[in-house]
């Protein structure tokens, strides 16, 4: 899938690009070997066990808890040395499922559920960002004040059935009649909206930063206000075989991540400084802006950071099923799906 670019870097964002990617790699994961071996095969110097961790996207604000844990030696305290696999042409989900990474991020419930339903041998073990920060945006100058006004308009995204179902469900809930036209973007969401190539697009807090540079104003629609089940932000997946063989490593990783992401909530400046130190390519001003905007999305109502709600993930699965966008390994829409085997809080500190 082609990626959009902003300032020379990929801009296609978490939920949609990872969901679209997941739809294309299901067969690969089902046929690939997922046995990554035991921890004894990855031991490094100093008595630490090297663990490969895949990023879901370019380093940014959502990764500050991970960076803090790395910079402050929290993983080392658990006997772990983290080896980062940067985002590339192969989605993080597929890297984890095929055993090329033992752990890593996926973007949301939507992408995780797509992977689970396709038979990918992974399990969600940590919720780094409880709430999805993305919204559906239109130019304020468009005069569109409700999703109902998107009927017959053009939505720019990544061509996935999930996007189309989400927008159309919002239109119907808002009392609109008709559906949206979907096109695949060749530029970033902000660029497409400002150039009036599309009427609506998904945007994230870092897009707000970009728009603020020239004073562009948007009207935003939150999907949950229009009947869409609550989606999550970033989750951590584990390769099933590796986690089962190395429960202490999985628990140590979850503990370090909890401390790192709690620090990101309590002291975002320190976490952002760690992010810049760990990934020097990031824009500090962009990270600080995004962190402030996303602060509300870090609040976990189900317990300490990292805690997952099976009920909320099940609710999103049920919503996807209703929209006929959750498909099995055979590519056919599922009539039901139980998320219980695919999510666990077992590795979190008690």
From TrEMBL:
Task: Please verify whether the record's keywords include Metal-binding.
Answer: yes
| Pfam families referenced in this protein's UniProt entry, alphabetically | NMT1 (PF09084)
Q: Does the keyword Transferase apply?
A: yes
This molecule's function is given as: Responsible for the formation of the pyrimidine heterocycle in the thiamine biosynthesis pathway. Catalyzes the formation of hydroxymethylpyrimidine phosphate (HMP-P) from histidine and pyridoxal phosphate (PLP). The protein uses PLP and the active site histidine to form HMP-P, generating an inactive enzyme. The enzyme can only undergo a single turnover, which suggests it is a suicide enzyme.
Q: Which reaction does it catalyse?
A: N(6)-(pyridoxal phosphate)-L-lysyl-[4-amino-5-hydroxymethyl-2-methylpyrimidine phosphate synthase] + L-histidyl-[4-amino-5-hydroxymethyl-2-methylpyrimidine phosphate synthase] + 2 Fe(3+) + 4 H2O = L-lysyl-[4-amino-5-hydroxymethyl-2-methylpyrimidine phosphate synthase] + (2S)-2-amino-5-hydroxy-4-oxopentanoyl-[4-amino-5-hydroxymethyl-2-methylpyrimidine phosphate synthase] + 4-amino-2-methyl-5-(phosphooxymethyl)pyrimidine + 3-oxopropanoate + 2 Fe(2+) + 2 H(+)
Protein name per the record: Thiamine pyrimidine synthase
Which InterPro entries does the record match to this protein? NMT1/THI5 (IPR027939), SsuA/THI5 (IPR015168)
- Which keywords does the record carry? Iron, Metal-binding, Pyridoxal phosphate, Thiamine biosynthesis, Transferase
Domain SsuA/THI5-like residue range list: 62-271
Q: Which family does it belong to?
A: Belongs to the NMT1/THI5 family.
Q: How would you summarize the oligomeric state and partners of this protein? A: Homodimer.
Which pathway?
Answer: Cofactor biosynthesis; thiamine diphosphate biosynthesis
